[in-house]
Design a protein that fits this description.
This is STAS domain-containing protein. InterPro entries: MlaB-like_STAS (IPR058548), STAS_dom (IPR002645), STAS_dom_sf (IPR036513). By secondary structure, this protein is an alpha/beta fold. The chain has one domain: STAS domain (Transcription Regulator spoIIAA, 2-Layer Sandwich). It is built from three helices and eight strands, in the order βββββαβαβαβ. It has an eight-stranded mixed sheet.
Length: about 140
């Protein structure tokens, strides 16, 4: 892994630092305050972005996801696939970011099956059926 580059300035009480690393030839965004990680992997088409999420996503770490969604917001990208299989925890901040992605110009699709905790979170918040979820095995 290469050493990280901080994408935002700030202090711990101000804004979380978001590091951009290069791991195995792909870009990885990670906040230093948790194990949350967003990895942008090569896609079959330049019109598609594939993001692999892993770890915990809460108010402290969701800015990492937002930074990646901003980074793939280019005229060429029409579809963003979000693979959440590695997410071990999410709270209302994650739900807010996922539902907010609907206002972005690209189509956003969550790849399923969703981890049990994420599926339950989306069900409890009533947002599960408002999101595009592919390969979902839940009713």
């Amino acid at each position: 892994m290469t050493s990280g580059r901080f994408l935002r300035d700030g202090s711990p009480g101000d804004w979380p630092f978001i590091r951009l690393d290069l791991v195995a030839g792909t870009f990885v965004w990670r906040p230093p305050c948790s194990d949350g990680l967003v990895r942008c992997v090569p896609a079959d088409s330049p019109a598609m972005a594939v993001l692999l999420l892993s770890g915990e996503f809460d108010a402290e770490t969701v800015p990492c996801l937002r930074e990646v969604l901003d980074a793939v917001r280019t005229p060429q990208v029409e579809l963003v696939l979000l693979d959440l299989i590695g997410v071990t925890f999410g709270d209302c901040a994650l739900v807010h970011e996922l539902t907010g992605a609907r206002s972005r110009p690209q189509r956003h699709v969550l790849l399923g099956p969703l981890p049990r905790r994420v599926a339950r979170l989306l069900a409890l918040t009533g947002t599960r059926h408002t999101l595009d979820i592919a390969l979902d095995d839940a009713p």
